[in-house]
Amino acid sequence: MNTIMRKSVLGIAGLAFAGGVFAGPATAHAAPSVESTPVAVVQADKPDTGKLIPHGVQGAQSRIDLSDEQVANVKAIIAATKKAGMDERAAVVSIATALQESKLENLGHLGDRNDHDSQGLFQQRPSSGWGTVEQITDPEYSTTAFLKGLKQVDGWQDMPLTKAAQTVQVSAYPDHYAQWEQMAADLVAEHWNS
Asked: Which pTM does this prediction carry?
């Protein structure tokens, strides 16, 4: 439910309550009152898309089909984001970053195909101080480490997603995060309350 509608419903409910309080005992002996229907306030089951993509998406967007394991990693990123006390936008930035870095696969060492010693959802490097191999291949730990870096970026909430992600990740391809923003927002909308 959007903010304007929610405020309208709450305002009407408040007027109905106030009217009942002020008119209650004084009109107890007046003509019988008309039955009233209770006003239901419905909680939004999905986050506000305006919060998920406050700057709009940049450039062409990519999308992939996800396996059960990748969806489980989405849910782990969302859970770690909530545990860190951060909002839906932080989850969007995190998921878009993991989509770019690993396609949401918790990658171990890839041998000759490895980028240095990068591993896990966020392709974090033990040699760069992100943690041990065991830590950075744990979805909760790696997400928490990413979010800790994000919190240190002044004004990350007001930055385009790709700039916020790049400031934490320091990628050789800084603009590639942008292509995953819509898919990340859709995943957060779908799984934030699940």
From this structure: 0.72
